[in-house]
Design brief:
The complex is a heterodimer. Chain A is an all-beta fold. In chain A, 0% of the residues lie in helices and 50% in strands. Chain A contains no helices and ten strands. In chain A, strands 1, 3, 4, 8, 9 and 10 form a six-stranded mixed beta sheet that branches. A four-stranded antiparallel beta sheet of chain A has the order 2-7-6-5, with no helix packed on it. The termini of chain A are far apart. In chain A, 36% of the residues are buried. In chain B, 0% of the residues lie in helices and 48% in strands. In chain B, the strands form two sheets. In chain B, strands 2, 4, 5, 6, 9, 10 and 11 form a seven-stranded mixed beta sheet that branches. Chain B has a four-stranded antiparallel beta sheet with strand order 1-3-8-7, with no helix packed on it. Chain B is globular, with a radius of gyration of 13 Å. The chains are: A mainly beta, B mainly beta. Chains A and B meet through strand 3, strand 4 and strand 9 of A and strand 4, strand 5, strand 9 and strand 10 of B.
Amino acid sequence: DAKTTQPNSMESNEEEPVHLPCNHSTISGTDYIHWYRQLPSQGPEYVIHGLTSNVNNRMASLAIAEDRKSSTLILHRATLRDAAVYYCILRAGNQFYFGTGTSLTVIP
Amino acid sequence: SAVISQKPSRDICQRGTSLTIQCQVDSQVTMMFWYRQQPGQSLTLIATANQGSEATYESGFVIDKFPISRPNLTFSTLTVSNMSPEDSSIYLCSAFRGTNTEAFFGQGTRLTVV
């Protein structure tokens, strides 16, 4: 299984940016980096993914280190609805193996 | 995108019985997967549901306990057989079209075995 390491929990103030780190030192050249989030009592929701270059979408930005051994999910302005568990996943082939994730608390 | 519907959304079952969970995708997908999520834990991949052939199981999961069917490109079932209280979990279906795309997840089936 491809492995990722994330902090167990993080806090952020509402309307401030949040940087969620992920280490994936065993990444191989063809592994995509995916981020999903899971709100309570829901299935995981896609956030963003990338291979080598930084990526932006309407939800977030993904910054990938030059050596690809780490990445950072950036939420530009945290809202209360962003409180969730965020999973950083390496997609090796067609399988998605989830790590332990980071539980994000947003403080009003 | 793809919308995934799972049935039932929750169930309470007697030990020793079996439950079949259905997963319907609103469009054709290449890959379908089944996950288990125990309370407060992350998702664990059970198996890849292969269309027209036997599912591919991850270490620790066996076909006799978790038989899976995938008769076409939009539908799959997972059966939890001979249930015990340790099988109480959320079971999630996922779909993936491959290559540079994202995966989609159902809302899960919350199973309680008493």
